[in-house]
Amino acid sequence: MFSLSLKGLHSSIIGAIVAAAVLAVLGGILWQRAADPGGRPGEARSKLAELAALPKPEPQQVKPLTPEQAKAANDALPFAENGLEPAPAFRGADGQADPLAYTAALDCLTAAVYYEAASESAQGQRAVAQVVLNRVRHPAFPPRICDVVHQGSERRTGCQFTFTCDGSLARQPSRAGWQRARQVAERALAGAVEPSVGMATHYHANWVAPYWAPELDKVSAIGAHIFYRWKGYWGLRPAFSQHYGGEAGPMLAELAGEAVPTGSGDEAALDLAALQAPLAHLRATLDQPRSPILVADEPQRRLLADDASPKLIADESAFGAAAASPSAP
């Protein structure tokens, strides 16, 4: 009886050890698959480290190469093999709810398209607009269109879009070129998506070779521009989770300062300062402090409605034809 009990106990111990070993192996496999769906050891840990380090936009510094050498270096860099994810349609810029903020967003996006891609095809211009809007939705960049476009413009080598710090804004664009760029910007703000660049957040001209290019995924080449996205998670659509913050910066004419006409031939140059004057005046009027209750003998305060006219100060008709002409089809 005792020997049988001892044998039974011995068998129970062995069975428990075997069961524990099996459970440990299965648990390890299940844990690894849960942490790393692809079944590649170490990838889960690297992904966690990657998520912890939000990438920072690099200054637009290029290698000291000739245009021919830069093009050869760019051609040698292969395209990413994991395809493109189309960006979601942009939402948030509402010309009806906030016409001043919408106009600022439209001006800044139009300027980016014009000064960065005036000589590019329609697709090339749409691609530049897409990069700007992709940046607005990425947590590594500001949540406003104007802030994205002018990021780093206070530093000569730190600007993200070179036209904001190389003196280009001192030149007035041609009316036809500005209208073309404005139409691209309007469609992008209305939700049009350029799928050929996916979630790209960077680009450069093909005759220069930035130091940062090999560190990103090369995804597309359109005209004279090459487009890139960040590697790994930060280049994937789920990372673009930042909400649009609306516009709060100065108008384009204030950023441009004193502009010098550069129209050639019969093509008229567009006067940005004259175009923005009615809207800048409107902004100054609406920004004045107001009493919550109208006091009849308070001459220093102004109403939203002009006392000399039944029209609202913010009525579109107050802007004049100059403000409406760039967006005409």
List descriptors.
single chain; 329 residues; mainly alpha; 3-stranded antiparallel beta sheet; 10 helices; 3 strands; globular; disordered N terminus; disordered C terminus
Question: Would you write up a description of this structure?
Answer:
The longest helix has 34 residues, at 2-35. Strand 2 and strand 3 form a beta hairpin. The protein has a domain at 67-256. The chain has helices at 2-35, 43-52, 67-76, 99-117, 122-136, 145-149, 175-189, 252-256, 272-286, 321-324, and strands at residues 202-205, 217-222, 225-229. The protein has ten helices and three strands. A three-stranded antiparallel sheet has the order 1-3-2, covered by helices on one side. The protein is mostly helical. Helix 4 (99-117) crosses helix 5 and helix 5 packs across helix 7 (175-189).
Choose one word for the global shape. Answer: globular
**Classification by helices and strands:** mainly alpha
Beta strand count: 3
Any low-confidence stretches, pLDDT <50, length ≥5? Answer: 1-9, 21-39, 256-266, 285-329
Entry summary:
The protein is mostly helical. It contains ten helices and three strands, in the order αααααααβββααα.
